[in-house]
Specification:
heterodimer, A: 258 residues, alpha/beta, Rossmann fold, eight-stranded mixed sheet, 11 helices, 43% helix, disordered N terminus, B: 230 residues, alpha+beta, Alpha-Beta Plaits, three-stranded antiparallel sheet, 17% strand, globular
Amino acid sequence: MNATPTSASSRIMAVTSGKGGVGKTFISANLAAALARAGRRVLVLDADLGLANLDVVLNLFPKITLHDVFTGKSSLQDAILPAPGGFSVLLAGSGMVEYSRMTPEVREHLQRVIAEVEPKFDHVLLDTGAGISDVVLYTVSLAGEVLVVATPEPTSLTDAYATIKVLATTQGRRKVQLVVNQTRKMGEGRAVRQQLQQVVDRYVNPNLDSPVRLELLGDVPADSAVRESVQRRQLLLQATPGAPAALALVAIAGRITG
Amino acid sequence: MIEALVELSSRDALTGLANRRAFELALAREVDRVARSGESALLLTLDIDHFKRVNDTWGHVAGDQVIRAVASALIDSVRPMDLVARVGGEEFAIILPNCGAAFGETVAERVRRRVERMPVAVTAAPGSAPLAQLHPLPAVATAVAATSAAAVPLAAPQMTVTVTVSIGGAFAPQWVRSTPSLWQERADKQLYLAKTQGRNLVRLEPTAVSVVSNEEKRLLFETFQIQDHE
């Protein structure tokens, strides 16, 4: 079985988590900034169509959003906005509530938009919504790589595991990358990965033709600087580039670019 | 003429059902359709239980009669829009487009019961095993002799048998571009479970795979706490 069920490019990475509030959008935005700093052309697409908040995280007030692209009011080119941190964004903005359920139209729009932006960037990050809804699953299916963000909290672990299980069984996903956010001690990310892998080996892999492998991209330590940057609606990499969490994100970007 | 050739190349000669080639084409089309429309669709894979014993006991003429009878039972228990195919010797598959998760179990059970309750008239090959030896065979719930093999040793005895099928099923993931082979593997996996859990059973892949069981949670947290105290 191939690693991905689709012909989706490995330049497209879906960032998902199952549970909300684990720092998915924070990771997407700051990872994009770290990749941009490494000289890559990066686009973050706010795929949380129903409850978008990438604009809030980046303190942007977009006049043109994905909604305008979907309805034909604006060209895709005009909707791609520069974000602080040197990367580009496609924002969902508010008023996208009607897209929170998957319909054939949303599906076609998303597929078209992603196919069009893909050749223009080195990395396209799809910041999905929380949960394991059909919109989230569909968005992930458009990506060649999937990054699951989890914290060491039991609820986050459970939702991360459920997400991995669904992706493996319904999409044939065999490689899942993991970022463990808000770790409190050394090696905690590794322990979380091992823990998830163990349950996957026991309950998911026996039902599959080839096993799911979880790869730890890195830990992001709990860091008061994160809270401060989020409150100020700034990128951590810009507000406090020397903070431990910022350095961790730069290291993760380094692992992605190889 | 071309139509007739296409028809020939897509039909199974014994049963008139779609053959494996036609099935694979239809499955690929359905994967595409499901991905585009978001409708749900069910794939069932079926296998006649202990079919080898039917063949070994009464010969392949009887085996063919059983296969034809099962084929017509399958056709009769699904909608005209569903595609019933013979994909191997005693293996069948049914593609059910636009079949909601809530109806999967019902339709698969209907298929299973229909086969189970259907008497099949077979012609046993001359010299095949006497009836007395047939009874213990699980493939034959009832074997009613129309003509005793002992009384007319050379004539082909007519008898009525029943067979059962094991059924596995999986729904296509909505909206997601999966692959036909992945979908089939998932259904086959369930068929394997139905076989190993006793046959004459329906096993559908649970649709809510996102549910995390208590056992899974226990393993997820228990060891984690142990590592915590290291």
